[in-house]
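Incident log, structure service

09:12 report received: a user says their structure output differs between two submissions of the same chain.
09:20 pulled the input from the user's history:
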Amino acid sequence: MPPLGDRRMYLPRIAAPRWVVFADFDETYLAHDGSPERRRDRRSLEQLLLEEASALGLVFGWVADGPIDVVAATVGTHGLRVVPHFIASSWGAELDFFTREEGRRPVAEWDARVAQSGFSRARVAAALDDLLRRGVHLIRREQAGRRIDSYMFQPSGRGRHLEIASILHKVAERHGIGVHVYPCHPALGEPEGAYDVDFVPRGVGKRQVADFVLDRLGIPRSRALGFGDDVGDVDMLSTVEHGYLVDNATDDARRRFSRTAGASYARGILDVIERRIERVRL
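09:34 re-ran on a clean worker, output below:
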């Protein structure tokens, strides 16, 4: 994994956590267009986290679709300055906490739980063969990780994606693995109308890792915030009491979840934190 630290800044240790924030990474925390306005907003959020996290008892983390290596490479490409308290990558299949003193620290309890699912490349390969026999061909994406294998499919006709999504879930279940199927994101340079297909360990998702982190930190849902931009984030937003779509969210996500942050990307996260948390500082 490329280093996340080195010349970057780590958030302070939180001795007595009182709040936790779960932020989807791509197109929620990070705006890939790299515009000056978006960079300024992100740096304002970073500054608040560096200066106020200790006083607020605030633990902040990214929850990413892709594997940790892809997240780390994106951090370098976009010059992100601050390493969060934790990163849940590969749809939560991997969970790491970060400190200046110790660097990256995988969570052994979570690793053991996920390992029990029996996820393997052999199971994914068997599922792909099964899909081919059913006439479903997936295009491999170059972002496989330890606990994720990523593909794409292009529906051949109107409504075909619903049929194929159903087949994907049935085949994945048959082979003892999990799968996330969701629309590709044109803002990330992905083809419009196509769908991402991520095979992961069974029972793993953003909601499950959020539940685990809340339990581990001893924080109730009433003191948990979540932010996302697409349909893959909706379960996570629903499991915390204060879930928000940033205002650049996709139309599909807005049809499934109504509460919005009032601003886009990092500005939306920053504004909600200031509204929901600073005013109740202890």
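09:41 both user submissions now match this output. Likely a transient worker issue. Closing.
09:42 reviewer note: The domain at 121-200 is CATH 3.30.70.1410 (Alpha-Beta Plaits). The first helix runs from residue 36 to 56.
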